[in-house]
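My main concern about presentation is that the manuscript never shows what a single data entry looks like. Each protein is reduced to its one-letter sequence and a matching series of backbone shape codes. For the editor and my fellow referees, an illustration may be useful. For illustration, here is how one protein appears when written out as sequence plus structure tokens:
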Amino acid sequence: MSKKNSDKHLNRFSTIVEIITNLGTIGSWILGAGSAYILNVQKFPVIVPGFNFTLDINFQFSLVLCSALAYVHFMQNYWKKKKEELSLSDSFMEFSFWELPRLKHPLFLIPIVIIIAVCVQIVAESVWLLVISLLILGIVIYFVIRAFSYHLSADREYETLLLQWKSDAEWRERWFRRITAKLDNYGKAKVSDHYEVGIGFKEKAKLEIAFALGQYFEKYEFDQDLILIKTSQLPIGHPEKTIFKEDSEWILLHRENLNIRRDD
């Protein structure tokens, strides 16, 4: 048998095993939620013969929890296998509490709806089970709100911008030329030196300039013997030193210019 045919059969076997595994996982949470529902709709409590064990609402609630855990396991496996292929979130927490609530994968919500429906039917008969369910729901809502607060915040928007700038070769080349010109002519380059570019004094502009200085420093720190520092941290007497921290800004300069004085 050729190596190509052997690999083909191996891939086919792996696919079959994966399907069987997924079906087993899906069956486990369906069995748990379905069994809990069937037991709950019985007119009389079900007792296990020979053990005198009653399958009451506490047992039914346990089945629902087991079903939920089995489903979480299934989603986690799916996320691990499809993360790169489908460009899913970098963490399972983000996938669960950010992507799913935004209906990016609506089919994954169907089992959750079924589990919640069965759980509501069961906990309606017990106060303490209702309290536990509300506590679990509160924890889930907390993480959902936390994920939305993070992703919809200005900080997340800035993080996205930084990633875009870092991966944009044209952006890097353009800013490196500007910074090189400042260093060659004045021996230093600070944030306010680049306001002349025309991007203004807005926070986004300051962030872009400071990030460009950081990227330049990261690449040429040792080749050009550079130092990146806040102007408020410069030695006393340095012409660029600022007294108040609110007036401080990032400055990039050659190390030989770090200790120069105003009268030099």
